[in-house]
């Protein structure tokens, strides 16, 4: 039975021969064996090949060399690397007479070349016959490329945070100084913020996220190089980040509620981060919104912009209000506008005796900015107005408009109604109307010459046909009139004076009484009295 064991020889001087005789090898259960060892230390072999490597720092470059065994023995080789930047398989086996077996050498530089000096290293393959193969390794460590090229689209006026993973490639903690270099635009833009902490600490062989904050007031493309540098070793890594600021969505929805034609106001706070004052222009296409064309915000301060809502029609609507400055971009706001029904206008009071009327001009304020046609109607037949009213364009703050209303009562006592003026442009106005009808007053005297007639117009002011009674107290007068009078129609009463029955020329007086006969409902008892005076020439 044969048992193999290895004897390792580690010489310390070149050329010196070492000889050890009669060394005993003790075998359990057997007799000791005698062993003689001799060794000679030879100088290092000549360089077999120079292998060059080039790659970015903290990346890798792999080169392959070919190894051959021209002997009849199997070689189990243990490569020895000098230089921290290279590595390869710990063992390689070459079979007898095996040719060109590949062996991969990996160059993985962790630092940059100092003063343009390449990294130096060697790879040595000790051979069983005491010789060896020596390879010289040269490494060029180039500047690192970006860890990543990041592109993001971010709405204006919206804070955004990008997380940049930072890897510590060393087995000890590292502190990195953070430097943000703007690439685009070339000129500094004070309306854009791109920043984070000045330093970041990363534990050994670990990873940590760095928070990079971006904010832009206006649209545009902003590109920066974010460098993380170890100030002790001067090693660094970096990211290239590009942020395209796109139009922002609605910054805020502003709700406003107001009755028709009543004013309500709202305000918006706008920050100016610039070291100089800025002027904002305003735009709103909602006709019921009043606002200044522009306003100024001082440097490095916050300004307040106020506007008013004065609706002309009830209902709900939505609109958009935009502020703009060339340095700070657009600020879009949504308006949610709700209009409650109009409050009544100032009431108009009338007073007239039954059978007559009264005309008064009712007034309202027209806010429509264009010539407007109003449709007029009343809900009580005792009040009358023209069917249409035309109003000139209103000025800022409104223009007063008058409409004539005629009150003609059809019954005694109080009458109530509402005058409604409506327009698609100007909205609706409601004017309360209050009327009081007094009992008829005596009229006259009416002078009638003997032998002549006089016509006295009498109008049926009621809303239905009425059969009136016509009587005179003195028989020297006679009356002729239609018995039934249609509503709102005029009946001419003809009164004849025959002269003084005594033959004298003394004037004769009398009364004509027009009355509603019994059975005419609420009109019963109403009388119209006309004084008559007959004259005999």
Automatic annotation (TrEMBL):
InterPro entries per UniProt = Hydin-like
Q: Which one GO biological process term can you cite for this protein? A: cilium movement
**One GO CC annotation:** axoneme
What is the official name of this protein in its record? Hydrocephalus-inducing protein homolog
The organism of origin for this protein: Physeter macrocephalus
What gene does this protein come from? LOC129391399
